[in-house]
Amino acid sequence: MTEDKNISIHGQWSSRWAFILAATGSAVGLGNIWKFPYITGEYGGGAFVLVYLFCVAIIGIPIMMAEVMLGRRGRQSPINTMRSLAKAEGRHGIWSWIGWMGVLAGFLILSYYSVIAGWGLAYVFRTATGVMHAADSAGIKDIFGELVSDPEKLLAWHTCFMVLTMVVVARGVKHGLEKAVRFLMPLLLILLLILVGYAMNTGHFSEGVEFLFKPDFSKLTGGAILTAMGHAFFTLSLGMGAIMMYGSYLPENTSIAKTSIIISLADTMVALLAGLAIFPIVFSFPELAPGAGPGLIFQTLPIAFANMPGGQFFGTLFFVLIVVAAWTSSISLIEPAVAWLIENRGMTRVRAAVWSGLATWLVGIATVLSFSHWAFDFNFLGTVKHNGVFDILDILTANIMLPVGGMLIAIFAGWMMKPKHSKEELALNRSYKLWQFLIKYVAPVLVFVVILNIFGII
Ligand code: PFF
């Protein structure tokens, strides 16, 4: 390989820490603070959390290592990375389909992710102006209901968030992206700790802890297992090439195993802290229920802020940070598509960002309407879902496309690549065998079994 081939045409992170921060920025997002608590609530707590943690450790970390490794070896968008790696390994070009499916998944996820991030933006203003502060818990619930049932407002906030995202994407990897995460991620952690501190004083902290950590296996339905596994992929940004893309900007000589473990631990910690902050509040108010669905954090956290000293300030800051966390994730959702447009269609970065942003914005309108005109109920493996297209998109992407993408990545890294190559890239000694075992057998088989089980095949 020549010197040039060791650097992506799109740029490179300035250091190992820049990569860790950016990948953590991708991983930590709405998935941790918004989605983890509400799906944990819907699926009954402890047992669900246990399956999720198990999947992060056994499937998530090895697949993250595989994605970073493939990205760093390929140095291009996931589609072209998979194509060139398949060729280099003497395999069929069809493996580039992993990249295609990933681009589609990222695009669909961002279309709804942006609408929810828009709720966050709306809440920045609602908290800052003191509207929340004046309301009681029932009023706070109503404020949420009014927001989501108004498509015009949702569309306006969705538009704002998409513009924010595409501005950073248009500016490229180093400018903006790296700088933004450096300060904001630690700040988010501090605010979460303050909220957990508040939750400890609600008098219902132990109930919250019990709900999160005491497994009741009778609640573990097929749908719960699939959702927990899907969420492990979603929260770590795996299975669609986002981490592969970020890996392609990684300097040589960085330990892939260490960085992957740091990112996964940080991500898991944020989710658990969010759970510890939210459930004690839920149990303090009879009108709130753990299974409230996607509105859960928007109906609980404002109560905490309304009741704590300096709540208006902390509340505003917290919603700003949620938006920032969503922002650093959404950039990575669209980056594979943008990089491909630059590589294969000869577009400038700005043009590629505008086109992919516009397309995503348009599809997002389906989610905007999912909470009002297009809302309908349906049964997903025993759990009733209320928000039509939004829920369908979420189930299709997080529960099906990401795990299948991850499984194919595992098969490629474990079976299609020569062990000599993966060993050289991962630079592991004894633990290489463990990674190899997990990536060849454990990860693909578990994903396969869960999916077959859902379709009633086994
Ligand atoms: N990991 C992000 C979150 O938890 O909010 C969501 C996400 C980002 C999923 C990037 C997938 C992805 F490729």
Characterize this entry briefly.
This protein is mainly alpha-helical and 458 residues long. It has helices spanning 16-27, 30-42, 46-74, 78-88, 97-128, 131-134, 137-148, 151-171, 173-200, 205-213, 222-235, 242-247, 256-284, 296-307, 311-345, 349-370, 388-416, 419-426, 431-454, and strands spanning 378-380, 383-385.
Topology (elements, then pairings):
Elements: H1 16-27, H2 30-42, H3 46-74, H4 78-88, H5 97-128, H6 131-134, H7 137-148, H8 151-171, H9 173-200, H10 205-213, H11 222-235, H12 242-247, H13 256-284, H14 296-307, H15 311-345, H16 349-370, E1 378-380, E2 383-385, H17 388-416, H18 419-426, H19 431-454
Antiparallel strand pairs: 1-2
Helix pairs in contact: 1-9, 1-13, 1-15, 2-11, 2-13, 3-4, 3-10, 3-11, 3-13, 3-17, 3-19, 4-5, 5-8, 5-15, 5-16, 5-17, 7-14, 8-15, 8-16, 9-13, 9-15, 10-13, 11-17, 11-19, 13-14, 14-15, 15-16, 16-17, 17-19
Bound molecules: 4-fluoro-L-phenylalanine.
